[in-house]
């Protein structure tokens, strides 16, 4: 239990608890039915638990790993009461996430040895990509960092306009061209401007189209290649934004984007409006790519740095 004796920001934790309320309520409703009339964790309970986890969007492969972990503990402890199941779930899922999430991020931070630090943001339209970029820019600027945004999603005029709204709101510069312009050209201009301004961080929006994976792959590869003409080894991070409320569809999007480009981190949004919060556990485990940020509300402060202990504590804390 020492894993969960952590000091969290009370305000951040309250927002997280509230954001995961629907997921937690639905999960515990299913769990209660799964263990009804049972005092001991046996094969029937484990079979029911497996169904609960799968239907909570944790995913089949990750569910089987969790069940295997719990079975190992049951066989070792001989007798395990169903009243202990919640605690065991918290510990085993935190342990599973620890295999992907080394260390505990608690703040919005970037490496000190990369300037400007370049993040390329990918994801299909409608997942909250542009909003995530705006909220990230806000958090980094709040720390005194100089941020530049690049509107390289030139496929839709609305994407450029939306990013401009966020740039105005956060009061950071944005580099953009007309709709239909070459995304790589926008990325080149953005990095060139950022270098001249001595910016600390650059966040590049990209087109959210998956209808043709080959085109997407070629476009993202070209954007990367052109950026490297300005700053070597960029982008330093490729952040894939996924909509948590789409459940298993988020898995499919993650599969497609990880085939199209080298994704290094994930942001899972819209967790506050859904009962599918378990998808964070499955995606984190299945893709072995760290979930870096989660969206748990519409407010500008409601994008949080993902912390495995905080998340699992909020999700499985029945008294919270």
Automatic annotation (TrEMBL):
Catalyzed chemical reaction(s): GTP + H2O = GDP + phosphate + H(+)
SRP54-type proteins GTP-binding domain residues are 290-303
Q: Give the membrane topology, semicolon-separated if more than one.
A: Peripheral membrane protein
Tell me a GO cellular component. cytoplasm
Keywords in alphabetical order? Cell membrane, Cytoplasm, GTP-binding, Hydrolase, Membrane, Nucleotide-binding, Receptor
The molecular function terms in GO held by this entry are: GTP binding; GTPase activity; signal recognition particle binding
Q: Where does the UniProt annotation locate this protein?
A: Cell membrane; Cytoplasm
The EC code for this enzyme is 3.6.5.4
Record InterPro entries: AAA+_ATPase, P-loop_NTPase, Signal_recog_particl_SRP54_hlx, SR_rcpt_FtsY, SRP/SRP_N, SRP54_GTPase_dom, SRP54_N_sf
Name one process (GO BP) from the record. Answer: SRP-dependent cotranslational protein targeting to membrane
Its main subcellular localisation, reduced to a broad class, is: membrane
Q: Which residues bind GTP?
A: 123-130, 205-209, 269-272
Family of the protein in this entry: Belongs to the GTP-binding SRP family. FtsY subfamily.
Function recorded in the entry = Involved in targeting and insertion of nascent membrane proteins into the cytoplasmic membrane. Acts as a receptor for the complex formed by the signal recognition particle (SRP) and the ribosome-nascent chain (RNC).
Q: Which HAMAP family does the record associate with it?
A: FtsY
Record's subunit section: Part of the signal recognition particle protein translocation system, which is composed of SRP and FtsY.
> Under what name is this protein listed?
Signal recognition particle receptor FtsY
